[in-house]
Design a protein that fits this description.
It is a single chain. With 232 residues, the protein is mostly beta strands. The protein has helices at residues 42-45, 64-73, 123-127, 217-231, and strands at residues 6-18, 22-32, 34-40, 49-56, 78-85, 97-98, 108-114, 119-121, 165-167, 171-183, 188-192, 202-207. The strands form 3 sheets. Strands 1-2-11-10-7-12 form a 6-stranded antiparallel barrel. Strands 5-4-3-6 form a 4-stranded antiparallel sheet. The protein has a two-stranded antiparallel sheet with strand order 8-9.
Length: 232
């Protein structure tokens, strides 16, 4: 399967109601249409791929090499350039636009975005530590992490030890999020559940990497409707 992705902006969260009597929390994402900037063939690099550009950027923000690249391709500059490998490069042409139609028959997608920054956080918030006792001898260190080292040997704190520090503000990927519905006219996609980041966060969406045999909400809805008809 061709694993072409799209870039969007997180608008916020809402809910969708289904006839079987359930409401599903959804995250609404505004999709940015991409433009095919360059075609990469096996003769050039040993594999077939397309280079897709997203977003707008001022020409003054570009380096000289990128200015030359876009002028050579006779296209407007793009803020983000992504390369996607494809099975059949003949399906694409330079200048073609790519939008939500690539997820037409897709049920699940992977979403990558940056989580909300929490600043400097202690071990209880950052790593779910239980903390020290609330009384009986513990003085002014109820939320501390306790001992971090050992004895004279090894006489140091190992790398990766769970301690207080910067929390959040990291790139995170949510796997196998279900597509509840798509609005092609307004370039909106509704995904089940939440995704990392605040409103207006940049979001990268692509086909699910893992193959899963899981029924979607719509499929479950149809099964329940059939059962109701049979009972009647």
């Amino acid at each position: 399967m061709t694993n072409i992705g799209l870039i969007g902006t997180k608008i916020g969260m809402s809910r969708e109601f289904f006839p079987i009597g359930i409401s599903v929390p959804v995250t609404v994402i505004k999709i940015e249409k991409g433009r095919v900037i360059d075609l990469i063939t096996k003769d050039k690099r040993g594999y077939d791929a397309i280079k897709v550009g997203f977003g707008k950027i001022k020409t003054s923000k570009l380096t000289k090499s990128m200015k030359g690249f876009y002028s050579k391709k006779s296209t407007e500059p793009k803020k983000y350039l992504k390369e996607y490998r494809v099975e059949d490069i003949s399906n694409f042409k330079e200048g073609n636009e790519i939008g939500l139609e690539i997820f037409k028959d897709v049920k699940f997608v992977d979403v990558t975005s940056k989580s909300i920054g929490k600043g400097f956080a202690g071990v209880m918030k950052r790593h779910n530590f239980s903390g020290l006792r609330a009384s009986h001898g513990v003085s002014v260190s109820h939320r501390s992490g306790g001992s971090t080292g050992q004895r004279q040997d090894p006489g140091k704190v190992f790398k990766g030890k769970k301690m207080a520090g910067h929390m959040g503000d990291k790139i995170r990927t949510m796997l196998n999020l279900e597509i509840i519905k798509s609005d092609l006219n307004n370039d909106l996609i509704y995904l089940k559940g939440s995704i990392p980041g605040s409103k207006n966060t940049l979001v990268f969406i692509k086909n699910s990497v893992k193959k899963i045999n899981k029924k979607t909400i719509l499929e479950k809805n149809k099964i329940v409707e059939k059962q109701d008809k049979n009972l009647k």
